[in-house]
Amino acid sequence: MKKQLLTIFLLTFASLVSYAQDTPQPIDGTDCSNLFFQAMLDENAAAVGNLISNDFTVTNYNGQTIDGRALQQAIGQGYIIVDSGMLTGTRTRTYGDVAVVQGFWNVSARIQNNGFNGNVAYTSVCVRSGGKWKVTTVQLTPAQ
User: Fold this and answer.
1) How far apart are CA 53 and CA 57, in angstroms?
2) Among the four residues 4, 50, 77, 143, which has the most C-beta atoms within 10 Å?
3) Is 95 within a domain?
4) Residue numbers of the domain that contains 77
5) pTM metric for this prediction
């Protein structure tokens, strides 16, 4: 019985260590924002979930606000598909444990089969809490 429990513990621990290595922890606000957009590009709902705060919101092009749980579900269920995306012009202002990150995201994506291809100006706010950086809000605006 002890051997079985030890085996189960070791397998569980090994899988947790492996999972932790697959989801890198951001080193600063810029990294946190970049990892968020990479997780969107990878359509990785779990990674998005690890990077966002409990009170996360994203405001889209139409001014509609979506919470973190809805974003994760939309990614996981294939409602949001990011075909390609590249960040440029990133600028970060850090105020202690808060970072405001702005830039452009050249993105090709589909949201519920409605395609978008072009530049998006973004602002993301990242906060360090408990020693970990989390994205608390993202604002997306079409840019010309």
Assistant:
1) 9
2) 50
3) yes
4) 26-142
5) 0.82
